[in-house]
Amino acid sequence: MGTDPLKEDGGLDGRQSDAEDLRLFQTAAHPCGYWPERSARDLVIDPRDPRLPRLYPRALEWGFRRSGDLVYRPQCQGCHACMAVRIAVARFSPDRSQRRCLQRNAGVDGRVLPAQRTDEHFALYRRYLGARHRHGGMDGHGAAEFDQFLIGAWSDSRFLELRDPASHHLLAVAVTDLTADAMSAVYTFYDPGHSHLGLGTLAVLRQIEWARREGRDHLYLGYWIAGHGKMDYKRRFSGLEGYDGSAWRTLHFDADGGLLPANEPVSLPVPGLRRLLKRST
């Protein structure tokens, strides 16, 4: 890859001993998981790099995301629909709809557990995929795919369980990664028979509360895609920031949900990463 971009950015966690060449791989074209008629490609950090646990917080800041042991970001030719987004926890305030969701589910029990699959988790995951992603390629997942997709060998991950207070019925599981100053919402699956409760929204709201209690600055939500039925909900969370490829900026939307012109960045650019990405293509 040539010169080391991390040296200019303080290395991993500021340690120059970690400032060695970072290897990135670009995948072959594959069907897009969001727009079936399109093809997609991803940029993947070398999964064999032993520095991944230390690099992961910085990778999140660069717009990457974890899936199993892979840390990736979309790198599609001619398409820039996916924008990495995060919530600035201190600036979040629930809107009227989110307050109703919190009130409606005030009695729902939440507990944080190690990221370990149980039969109950897997059964809920299968019901969720069958209802929400039928014929989408994931509905055939078995236990091995569950572990490969959601549980990382090196990540500091937790399962946030949401349960009915009376029956103790498992309503939802929010897979969450922890870093020193942030959380990442990796994936949430919930009981499709209780979708009227707004469990997807509730999971994010509970993650925000969790992050606030522990003094973490951001909750990463993965990618926002304008106009996409399953991704557009993310714009409804206040304090939302988006990564434009060089810096994070506060996002503002018009009455129709359209993205307004970007304002001043809320974080410093990462010039080293831009050179690294150019060398990877």
Quick structural gist:
With 281 residues, the protein is α+β, with helices and mostly antiparallel strands.
Q: What features would you describe in this structure?
A:
By secondary structure, this protein is of the alpha+beta class. It has helices spanning 5-8, 52-61, 96-104, 119-132, 143-150, 199-213, 271-280, and strands at residues 24-26, 30-31, 39-40, 42-45, 65-67, 70-74, 83-88, 109-114, 157-163, 170-178, 182-190, 218-224, 240-243, 248-250. The protein is built from seven helices and 14 strands. The chain starts with a helix and ends with a helix.
Which properties best describe this structure?
281 residues, alpha+beta, 4-stranded antiparallel beta sheet, 7 helices, 14 strands, 25% helix, globular
Alpha carbon gyration radius: 19 Å
Which bin fits the share of residues in helices? 10-25%
Class by helix and strand content? alpha+beta
The helix count comes to 7
Number of strands: 14
Distance between the termini: 11 Å
Report the major sheet. Answer: 8 strands, mixed
- Could you say which overall geometry the principal axes of the C-alpha atoms support? globular
Average of per-residue pLDDT values: 87
Q: What is the beta-strand fraction?
A: 15-25%
Return the string of H and E elements: HEEEEHEEEHEHHEEEHEEEH
Oligomer: single chain
Please list the strands of the largest sheet in the order they lie side by side: 8-9-10-11-12-7-13-14
Low-confidence stretches: 1-19
